[in-house]
Amino acid sequence: MRWIDTSRESPSTTPIFSWGIAYATVDAPLATLLPAWAGRATSGVLAGCTSSGGVFTPGGFRKGLHLLVADEKDPVRAASVIRKCTATSAQRMAREAAEQLVRELGRAPDTLLLHATPGFEERILKGIDDAFKNSAPPAYGGSAADNDLSGQWKIFSGSQIETEGFVLMGFTAAQEPLGAFVAGYLPTHQKGVVTRAQGRTVFEIDGAPAAQVYNHWRQGALTRFMGKTSTVLADTTLAPIGRLVDRHKGTPRYLLSHPHQIHEDGALSFFTEFAKGDEVVLMMGTTESLLERTTQVVNRARAHRDDAVLGGILIYCGGCVLAIGDKTSDVAKLYREQLGGAPFVGAATFGEIGCLAGAATPNRHGNLMCDTVLFR
User: Fold this and answer.
1) Does one domain contain both 130 and 198?
2) What are the CA-CA distances from residue 18 to residues 161, 172, 315, 372 (Å)?
3) Is the pLDDT score of 231 beyond 90?
4) 246: confidence class by pLDDT, cuts 50, 70, 90
């Protein structure tokens, strides 16, 4: 596999490749670049999404369009399907897309890579689950992003570019790709149960207004926002809500959700869906823990295996990129070291997709998280 920085290489002089994964910042001229580079893929598969602020590469966190491409001799096959859709049609179209991948690959994929536009990721995952009789393959990825939440994000496959919908890739390989999904935050003693919620808004925790409960857990850190509709993204990045998914080998596993808006009535909105009865806990992170999880996610994916890595995909929350600031390039450096110098690309996303192996519903959508796929 190879990393291609399209600002330094030309399609006309670059050797052909089998398939590719592409991440780009919103300033990249995708309408011009993508058709030319997709034409170099013998399978026609070149898919990905936009990333917030930069793209993780072996050369650091860089702007522009960057590719991870598979050489013809690499033992990994790929197929991709892109769909323009809304929340209403997402579940059905995701099921159809997953079924199409199975037909194109000749069997169920070993691993899936999903990039959606923000807003209805859970419905897409439900549709993917519907496509498989037993359980869906492990899915990883993240939501397309821009630099300022203004909606400039895009997904793409080949020369098709969409601002609402999803792109789904499937991989089959001689050795199944490895993956992991981690938080990098620790639970506190502050916990409760969601007693009223609708979609991505939690109205009550333990019978009290959710924002009031969260502010109490934070020792009044958001008091200045209470009683009015306020955006609190920057003030909550290091203190998200964790939902208890299960206990794996005695250890609780949490799915993170980022509080982004306090409402006048005391409700609290997130970038993930909640349901009545969800057990929630205040989580805390630091700049150091957010860097450390770059190492953790690779170690968890490898699970003590010593196979050589052909290439990797890193998905890292865009909100966390803002939190760590100038240290973002350290994330790329740490990931490169963990891969032993193997090529990779990575996106800073507005929501993360990952597999919690052994869970009743393993493929989940969370916030402020990190996931990876390693090809071998």
Assistant:
1) no
2) 21, 13, 22, 21
3) yes
4) confident
